[in-house]
């Protein structure tokens, strides 16, 4: 498939012009429009509005001009819902939806609030975002496909029905992966950073995007564009690494891969969560670096994602003292409108991070939604109460607190993104976990394996015993199977010990008598390891364990380089 055309940079002028024209058309469905406030949008001496049928921006503006107040408000809301089906839910899921939105089912939530999209949520092992995952509605690919079809059937009855309904999820790969069974599992972003091959990254993410599209998911809250400037456990291996230039190339590759498969990419978490070790799922992290450091360190991957055509950017609950001290970026017009749109030139959809996270819950849901839109967001993600957010937005629109042109601008951007995703053929479910897709993941995983101590590429001697820290039986079994397939004899005990450590592990989880210690997440723990051979895969995916087995068997050379600096260890011990 070719890449989805039309960069958000290039559509900005048309969207702004058509939005300004349409605010008067929308005014007939509510109060008189407020004066059009200038947005940070590129200008041209002469702008010719395209035909509504010519391009996504024209179709979006034409549709926005027909929408009632209630439909406009609904288009900027993207909550989660309880239940693995759109129309049939358990009593527990119905109770959850009643508390969240005053309805029983996801389909009823879409109809009542005229929603523009829904996020699919779920739990995964070692997930640092689990604090705002109140439920799960992803079980397996067939169930996800049936759920998304039901959601779209409900949305198709709305006034905004001609624009495809947004179904999003956090499919980052690595520790944050919502759909894990029956799909091709890529190695983590940090593994891709270690491989340092954007072409491999693009190919792998195109495979992943194709599988998401087959299941009916058209928006991925990925890739993570945060530079790992601190040893953050909440970002960690979700980042492509500590080098802004290398991370930028990886972000661009992931964006291009996803969007060539018809899935919108949302680079996150602007303006850069990797510059603080604090967790915004618990507090407001303070990013205290000077503006020059933001420009040099935090912003390059976001610029690269924007230049690659990313349709969306996710804002973060971060207090960036050099730009707008005391105001989380989610609610900062200086950061989202002046910097992201004005300076970085982004004209696509800005999406909040979860509004059910503590930093956003300092305000009631309606007030928080209004503040987020006024700052420059276009989609309100995971509000803790859908009814209150909807009512708050509608009241603010009608009393002038939320200027009509501001809401119409957001809706037009959202609809433009939807129409850019429209009319794409849906891939067959048979593409899921297919041989070509597994090969793309395997190539990336193999290029990531890094040797940090020991003689490069030497096979382990004798039979091998695989051990892990607690709770990693599945990973141990995967490596055991891969080693056996590679011709290495594995014994329950007494062999050359290969010890695996992963997310959340520290020095206490190391094994002093291990001949080989392998880090399957960030490699920092290896600084304390005494094993004569140290390896890093940065990931515990099936592809990563297969790649590791090849190195341990002496059949593959570990060509990766650590994408983060390590005290007392080189980026690789394989030279020449």
TrEMBL record:
Residues 29-55, 556-576 are annotated as: Disordered. It catalyses: Hydrolysis of terminal non-reducing N-acetyl-D-hexosamine residues in N-acetyl-beta-D-hexosaminides. Residues 105-416 form the Glycoside hydrolase family 3 N-terminal domain. One of its GO terms (molecular function) is hydrolase activity. InterPro entries: GH (IPR017853), Glyco_hydro_3_AS (IPR019800), Glyco_hydro_3_C_sf (IPR036881), Glyco_hydro_3_N (IPR001764), Glyco_hydro_3_N_sf (IPR036962), NagZ_Beta-hexosaminidase (IPR050226). It holds the Pfam family Glyco_hydro_3. Its EC number is 3.2.1.52. The keyword Hydrolase applies. SUPFAM superfamilies: (Trans)glycosidases. The keyword ATP-binding does not apply. It is an enzyme of class 3 (hydrolase). Residues 1-27 form the signal peptide. Belongs to the glycosyl hydrolase 3 family. PANTHER family: BETA-HEXOSAMINIDASE, BETA-HEXOSAMINIDASE-RELATED. This is beta-N-acetylhexosaminidase.
